[in-house]
Structures are given as C-alpha cells and as structure tokens.
Model the fold of this input.
Amino acid sequence: MGTEGSTMLEPLRQGLPPVDPTSVSSSVSCSLAARYESVKGAREFTKSALQRWELNEQFDDVALVVSELVTNALRHALPRGSNGAPDPPVRLHLMHWTSRLVCAVRDPSDECPVARDTSPGDLDFAAECGRGLHLVEAVSDSWGWHPLAGTLRGKVVWALFRLPPTRFPL
Done:
C-alpha cells in the first residue's frame, strides 16, 4: 500500500480504540472495478488474506460484511454516466492486529451511508436490498465511516471485528 493508502487510513486508525503497541499489524488493499462482479473478487481477496493471517474461522462473517460494504459502494457511491471516464476508485482495505480485524471500503462519494429505517413495518426483510448496513451492524463488533481528508475525495466505510485471543500450546 502506498502513501495514498496510508493517508486514507490514518483517520480510521485514530477513530479506533487504542491497540497494544506490541501487537502485530498487517494490512492489504486491492482496487475494485466499478462492476458488480467485483464483489466476488473482494470475497476471494478477503479469503486469501484471512488464510494468510490464519483467521479462517472468521471468514463467513467478514466475507458477509465485505460483500455488503463493497455492494453499497458500487450501488450508491459511484457517479452515474461517467461518459468514458476511468472508473472511480473503490478500494478494499483489510487491517489485522493481534486482537482485531478491520474491513474498510473507500469510495468517491461524500454522502454518508444511511441504514434504512427499522421501524416496525418499514423494513422489508423479503426485499433484495436495503438490509446491508443492518447486517454489517449485526455481524461486526462496530462500524462507522469518515470522510477522506487531503487530496482524496470520498469516504471510507469500515467495520471492526474483535478477534478471540490466540491460544498457544503449553
């Protein structure tokens, strides 16, 4: 990840609870094309990263959240009719520390993500869309978003997973 990624993630790191300085930190990132097939690629990228970090047990929950965040970015955050302009950037970032994992999706929109109203009778559980952020909230330990600063435009939507303590043989 280059300078752009580091600049983009700094506000996210500042918004998270402090991490033990002795914990290992690793991150990976990938660009996603502005088409729905990219959701599958994001899940495959996530699976590869979690395998590398020996976090296979977290894959189902993390993949669900990654799918929802990427789908939301593709569906709601990309400008309509780019008239041949290059695809706007959508990036998936996965950050791993000893005690937590963060999934973050960057998109070019300045609009905040909004979960649909959950008042009784207002949320249609049979609908094909509209439940994404509710799923993210239910499956992750916390989620949020922040606008990008500096030369980057858009926002980052993130979800945090607390990881079980690692067990070492006696």
